[in-house]
From TrEMBL:
Keywords: Kelch repeat, Repeat. The keyword Cell cycle does not apply. Residues 80-116 form the F-box domain. It comes from the Eukaryota. This is F-box domain containing protein. It comes from Trema orientale. Gene3D superfamilies: Kelch-type beta propeller. The keyword DNA repair does not apply.
Length: 438
């Protein structure tokens, strides 16, 4: 025992109270000795609120943690000369096209734009922007994707699609929570049918993993109802038969679960959510045309009326309570389903048809800013205002608008060339098209 220990022991034997050195309460990191069961007991042993019970403890033991707190307390403002609340009010008004540059300014801005608070605030104040995301199979068979900014009419760069989906076939695509784009299932040349699920966050501009599906499948149908992802049907390599099974992903629970099977196996090629139900049209195991509708409320599949199935072509979409489908290859004529007559009898025609080549074929219908957007394989875009569908185009020419997207063919020569390319087997085409909000 050293001399200081001997002095403390002798003082204790003589009845003197042991006085620990006074320390600053901020600098004291000690814990009450295990023998002192209560704080009151500790105060009896060590009088005074700023006394260190264990004076031999290393005062630098937690300095790193405390330093981080101090740095957070005195961190620089978001914008010099402005309180953070005013600076945030300025930053949320910066157009989305500039957000990639904002992340590079400093670490604090990067953390701000990578979190949910910034974008939730933009959405609550009506400042969120919607972009069109197009997933395309190029002529070499590889998957690429592009984002279109409708405000500035610009195509934006995106991080590469993960390798497992760079050449996949028959995979699904859907959007959850408005800003997460999911890719799931599909078929790989080496692995065959897949259960894999990944998603891209438009807020972080990164890809993430999600729970795998319960069944391997490709060429299936998918939809989103009440922010839950549903898949049904398709094929599974090795089984060599069409699937009846269906399942759902609840992002809140972060897991998949089975739902009721379809009446028979199906390879869906058209699907749409309308009036809270999921309508599917596809081919059965003997190549016959089949159709069924799923109700999430009752977890049941029911037949679809013949009138709807007969005139139902892809792509189609439900918007403002109306069901729309294209009536020509280039998408310059729309038709509307009339439930009362069980027929497709209303039309919106641009009177300016572009052609029937594969390059000019309409691949997707998406709702954006209260209008229908028609995206073609050559990445050209037409916008249709369906708020007044009964008005004729001649009396209101602003119903139909063509904008120049990437690869938009404007001249007679380029239109002719695209027609030749379509007949010669040009295989570049759009697989999926979705709208993400940030």
């Amino acid at each position: 025992m050293d001399q200081s220990g001997e002095r403390r022991s002798s003082n204790a034997q003589r009845g003197f109270r042991v006085q620990a050195p006074l320390v600053d309460s901020v600098s004291c990191y000690c814990k009450v000795d295990a023998g002192l069961k209560t704080v009151a007991g500790a105060r009896k042993f060590v009088p005074g609120s700023k006394l260190c019970i264990q004076p031999d403890i290393n005062p630098n033991a937690h300095r790193g943690k405390n330093s981080r707190k101090e740095r957070t307390r005195f961190q620089p403002p978001l914008l010099p000369g402005l309180p953070d609340d005013l600076a945030l009010a300025c930053l949320i008004r910066v157009p989305r096209v500039e957000h990639r540059k904002l992340r590079l300014v400093c670490k604090r801005w990067h953390r701000l734009l990578a979190g949910n608070f910034f974008y939730s605030l933009r959405k609550s104040l009506g400042m969120a922007e919607e972009w069109v995301y197009v997933i395309k199979r190029d002529r070499d068979g590889r998957i690429s994707w592009h984002a279109y900014d409708p405000t500035y009419h610009l195509w934006q760069p995106l991080p590469p699609i993960p390798g497992e989906y760079s050449e996949a076939l028959g995979f699904g695509c859907a959007v959850l929570s408005g800003c997460h784009l999911y890719l799931f299932g599909g078929k790989d040349d080496l692995k065959g049918s897949m259960r894999r699920v990944i998603y891209y966050s438009a807020r972080t501009n990164k890809w993430h993993r999600a729970p795998d599906m319960l069944r391997k499948r490709h060429c299936f149908g998918s939809c989103v109802i009440n922010n839950c992802l549903y898949v049904a049907g398709g094929e599974c390599e090795g089984i060599q038969r069409t699937l009846r099974s269906a399942e759902v992903l609840d992002p809140n629970k972060n897991r998949w679960s089975f739902i009721s099977d379809m009446s028979t196996g199906m390879l869906p090629f058209i699907g749409v959510v309308h009036d809270g139900m999921w309508f599917l049209k596809g081919r059965g195991s003997h190549r016959e045309v089949m159709s069924e509708a799923y109700s999430p409320e009752t977890n049941t599949w029911t037949p679809i009326s013949d009138g709807m199935v007969a005139g139902w072509r892809n792509p189609c979409i439900s918007m403002n309570g109306q069901l729309y489908a294209l009536d020509c290859p280039d998408g310059c004529k729309l038709k509307v389903y009339d439930r009362s007559t069980d027929s497709w009898n209303k039309f919106i025609d641009s009177k300016l048809h572009l052609g029937s080549s594969r390059a000019l074929e309409a691949a997707a219908l998406v709702p954006l800013n209260g209008k229908l957007w028609i995206i073609r394989n050559n990445m050209s875009i037409s916008i249709v205002d369906v708020s007044s569908p009964d008005k004729q185009v001649e009396s209101n020419p602003h119903i139909w608008e063509n904008i120049a997207g990437r690869g938009h063919f404007r001249t007679l020569v380029t239109n002719l060339w695209s027609s030749i390319a379509g007949r010669s087997g040009w295989k570049s085409h759009i697989l999926h098209c979705q709208v993400l909000q940030v």
